[in-house]
Amino acid sequence: MIERSTNFDWYKGPTLLEALDSISDPNSADKLLENFTVDSFTYSVAQVRATFYPKFENDKSDQEVRTRMAEMVSKGLATLEVSLKHSGSLFMYAGHEGGAYAKNSYGNIYTAVGVFVLGRMFREAWGSQCSKKQAEFNKFLESNRMCISMELVTAVLGDHGQRPREDYVVVTAVTDLGCGKPKFYSTPDVIAFCRKWRLPTNHVWLFSTRKSVISFFAAYDALCEEGTATTVCKALDEVADVSIPGSKDHIKVQGEILEGLVARIVSCESSEHMEQVLRDYPLPPSEGDYLGSSLRDIWAENRSDEKQQIKALLESVDTSFLPNYMDWFGNDVADGHSRNADRSVVSKFLQALPADFCTTKLQEMVRLMTEKRFPAAFKCYHNFHKINSVSSDSLHFKMVIHVHSDSAFRRYQEEMRRNPGLWPLYRGFFVDVNLFKNNKGIAAESSQEINYGSDTNAKDGLANEDANLMIKLKFLKYKIRTFLIRNGLPVLFKQGEAAYKAYYLRQMKIWNTSAAKQRELSRMLDDWAVYIRETYGHEQLSSFSYLSEAEPFLEQYAKRSPKTQALIGSAGSFMRDLAIIEGSRGEERDIIPSSPTPMVKDEGLIVFFPGIPGCAKSALCKEIMSAPGGLGDDRPVHHLMGDLFQGKYWGMVAEERCKEPYSIILADKNAPNRGVWRQIEDMCRRTKASAIPVVPDSEGTESNPFSLDALAVFMFRVLHRANHPRNLDKSSPHAGYVLLKFYDLYHGKNRNEFEAELIQRFGSLVKMPLLEPNRAPLPECVRSTLQKGLDLYGRLKPAQDTYSEWPEWEIQLRETLLQNVEYLNSIQVSFESSVESVLKQLKAIANGEHTTTPSAEKRSFGTIAYAAVNLPVSAFLDLLDNLGGQDPEVEGFLKDKDLRSSLTKAHLTLAHKRSHGVTAVANYGPYVNQNVPISMHALLFSEKSAALEAEPGVVDGEKLSSKNEWPHVTLWTADGVSAKEANVLPRLLAEGKATRVEINPPITITGVLEFF
């Protein structure tokens, strides 16, 4: 305890007294940070500690990406790699010292669950060797500065598309961090790494020919609305060039509900590399027998206390894998910094001299994101693993780079295109930071700079935009559960069933869901809405555990018919045993059938305006008040003009709602942020009302839902009005600044994200026309003046009522707008037409209809039912005329058929997924849109149908064939007879009930192969 014992020569650690003396108090570390000043001898070292792939957004549409992928593979430039998307959360592990991380955090319940499950995977794989292998694995990761990323799939961290049957991880990336910039292993190397350490791997398919790539996309299109894990894996196994099953079978460990597929471009040598890895690293055995308490048992036993859950999970992990719990509980005190300390660490990190090139690049990234005001946070915490190294001249921290919005990744990609030397912005981004003093200085690492400076992020010789080509392909059965049921809960409970119906119809329209499937889903979702509202009343079902109610509902609904079973796919399995999640309420109940519910007219309505001064909301409200018939019903309408009220406006609106719950309120005040939106949502819930946001229509920018053109018009309007109740008019010396301040409140979201969030919250959106679509570009003098103001605002961020830096710009703004009066008037949509459009939309939504959709790209490809050759009708009419002239029997048959009116389309079916399977249809993908010659050999007809016996010809040197037993083109059927009855003509011929007229020589008609 006090002195070292000669009886324990093997022990090299400190004595108990030395260990106690070495413990530092984080409070003193906070003091050290406060006293740490940056001077010319201050340096920083920053090293990436854990990260996942960068989030790349394709500039092209999904269809363009698919086309480019097929083109690259067909030219031998690349291979297409496809993997399953397991439904879980990101978990990263860099060894015990390196740390365990979730997507944007560490030291919490998510990472405790991750460490427990990963440790259990080792126990299952290695059995009695588990402790030894865990220690070796930690040492390997830490000595080589590596990180593994996994999909953590559990039943305890929130519901996705289906509660998994088992709790597990699948390794999705292995990252070498030793040289500074993260280097990600190729998939063959990931599989080799995992098989060496017996870690779980994903199912992967490789497509190295144009035919297989096109067939893959066709298979997805055929399965996107109906696919489950079984059917998808079977189809991909049949069309892929190489298939590598995962060590965790999705069907056995997660279930049939498959989230999606991830397809990306990889090196053209991947297939060969993969085959070599599979030869060198056969599937390892599993030696585990007794695995100890399960995650679900531990979770249930400690359900009431999250801190106790964490402790119990960590104590169940072998000490060889997890020697201490510093990242969760610190050094016996609460860990972390205050918000001020976060800013202080980041500020000092950016001011300090970089000690190496890696630090230079990370400083460059943080500085860029800070100066450009990206929606991201840089959260810093004490690094307790380095606590014994902390001194007044050396401080250690963990920095979490937390990106709040996907718009940050898009904007950063734009910066990378302008500056290819930038390091990527990663998902799940954790950095170790050391601030220290060195009076002797540090020599620059020029060699590293040369090496890294030449790296332009290209891989495998591919251009940047091609190297990062990736597309995510999701399946409808998963989206039903997550997007339509789970994500629709706030709309359903806060806005009611009519708003919910508008929400789910809009989602299906965006996905380009087939009309038949929309009808089926509408019936099911309407029943769900009634079922869950009757069960929960006004208390919203938790999205965290929504499957406790959704799965029993879906299970019962699926039992109605084979059609509903096909719609649902899989439901009910493993639900009733899971005591870990709050159970469903009461006994199993019958599903109540329902019909679409229109907006109830005895509910209230709040019309509000997420806009900017000058958007004409007050003038619009006056027009609504004076419009004959109001919004199409007899509810009283009240106009509450914010500029005429003192005090808390939204509190006053809430009072008015309580006084007259069934009224319509025009909330005439700009509502620019989520805080206001939450107040409106709360009002709707408490006073039984719906809310409709009215927004000025604008293309927006990459980081703001309003374009500079719109901002210019708003400023122009404000500077041309007089006697404003709040003095925001031409007499105000600070009007331009005030509008910039409002404009900045919307910063961080592009137009799509802005509209999507409003629709998600309120179920509807009304667009107020603002700018002429075919207007001339904004004059450069106007653009530059606005940009100067935005730069000034972003740089100074003056305190309220402090405008000392602005007079010169305010004068320039007025002069510039005055010089462009004619232009600014010409680009605006007339106020009368704007009012007409808004009234029409408001009336439609108020009556339970829906006319507005968010701007989002629609898929130009969709679900596929069959492959066929589309043929020109005119060619058949000519052919039949000729046959009738040559054969009296044919002439007699055709005499009363009037085919010139009834024959409007003709095709030769090659394969139908119901009859011949998905793969049979998908295999025609390489020939889509190509001309196919079809030989017509004979005409067969009976009293009920007529068809031409047909045979497909050669395309690109390959003979095509139809999967139908009797390939034919149906020409006519009697009233009440379906076209498929033509299939029996050969049998009727054999029975003497049909006639066959040979066409000699055969006639060739050329058509185009298409998917239908």
Question: Could you describe the 3D structure shown?
Answer:
The protein is of the alpha+beta class and 1012 residues long. The chain is built from 40 helices and 28 strands. Strand 17, helix 26 and strand 18 form a beta-alpha-beta unit. Helix 3 (62-74) packs antiparallel against helix 7 (210-223) and helix 7 runs antiparallel to helix 8 (229-239). It is globular, with a radius of gyration of 33 Å.
State Rg: 33 Å
Overall 3D form: globular
Query: First CA to last CA: what distance?
Result: 80 Å
Biggest β-sheet, characterized? 6 strands, antiparallel
Strand order of the largest sheet: 22-21-28-23-24-27
Oligomer: single chain
Features:
1012 residues, 6-stranded antiparallel β-sheet, alpha+beta, 40 helices, 5-stranded mixed β-sheet
Fold blueprint:
Layout (H helix, E strand, L loop, with lengths): L15 H7 L3 H10 L6 E10 L10 H13 L4 E7 L3 E5 L6 E2 L7 H18 L3 H14 L2 E8 L14 E9 L6 E2 L2 H11 L6 E4 L2 H14 L5 H11 L2 E3 L5 H4 L6 E7 L3 H11 L14 H7 L4 H10 L10 H4 L9 H13 L1 E2 L2 H15 L4 E7 L11 E10 L2 H13 L10 E9 L8 H8 L10 H4 L2 E5 L1 H11 L2 H7 L1 H14 L4 H22 L10 H12 L3 H7 L35 E6 L7 H10 L10 E5 L7 H11 L4 E7 L3 H14 L1 E8 L11 H11 L16 H11 L5 H12 L3 E3 L11 H17 L10 H13 L1 H6 L4 H16 L19 E6 L1 H14 L1 H7 L4 H4 L3 E7 H4 L1 H5 L8 E11 L3 E8 L1 E2 L2 E2 L8 E6 L11 H6 L4 E17 L1
Parallel strand pairs: 1-11, 16-18, 16-19, 17-18, 19-20
Antiparallel strand pairs: 1-14, 2-8, 2-10, 3-4, 3-5, 5-6, 6-7, 8-9, 10-15, 12-13, 13-14, 21-22, 21-28, 23-24, 23-28, 24-27, 25-26
Helix pairs in contact: 3-7, 4-5, 4-12, 6-10, 7-8, 20-21, 21-22, 22-23, 23-24, 26-27, 28-29, 28-31, 31-32, 35-36
